[in-house]
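Progress report, Aim 2. The chain analyzed during this reporting quarter is listed below.
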Amino acid sequence: MHAVPSCVSLSLATVLLLASPVMSQQVGGHGPRGGDPAFAADRELFHFLLQHRAEIRREVTLLDNGVETLTESDEPEVVSAIRKHVASMEARVKDKKSIHRRDPLFAELFRHADQITFANERTNNGMRVIETASDPYVVKLIQSHANVVSLFIKHGFAEVHRNHDLPAKP
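Predicted C-alpha cells for the chain:
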C-alpha cells in the first residue's frame, strides 16, 4: 500500500457525480434525465463542492484491493456537503444509478458497481471512505476513479468535461 496525497477528497462514490450539464443526459446523451428525483440535488451538491474545492483537503491511499480516501475541510458547510455527497454517491453506485455516462471511466465503473464494497467513517472534519473489490480490474477502476476525483478537485469544472481513459486490464 502506498499513499498518494492530494489536495481534495471525495471518493469513488464522490467522483461518480462529477459532471455538470453532461450528467443530466440519459444513456447515449439524448434528452433530460428522467426517473431520478435525486439527480438535480446530487448535481447541485457536486457543483457546490467544486466551487469550494480550495477549502477541501484530500488524501488518497492506494490499497492492494482498492483505495482509501480522506476528504476534509475546516468549513462546516463544506464538511456537511462532503458527508452528503459521499452518502449520495455510495447510494448511486449500490443502486446502479449511473452518472457521467459519456466518460468511459464512469460508464465502466457503473458496469462493475455490484463488485464494489464501501466502508465509510465520519471524521471530525469530513469522511474517510474505503472502496474495495476482489476483481483486479475493478480494483484498477476504483483507483483510477480516485485519481480522477483528485483531478476534479485540482482543475474544477474543466476536468469534469474531459473523458478519462480506462485502466489496462491485468
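The chain has one domain: 2-160. The helical segments are 12-15, 20-23, 39-51, 76-94, 104-111, 136-155, 157-160. These observations will guide the mutagenesis work planned for the next reporting period.
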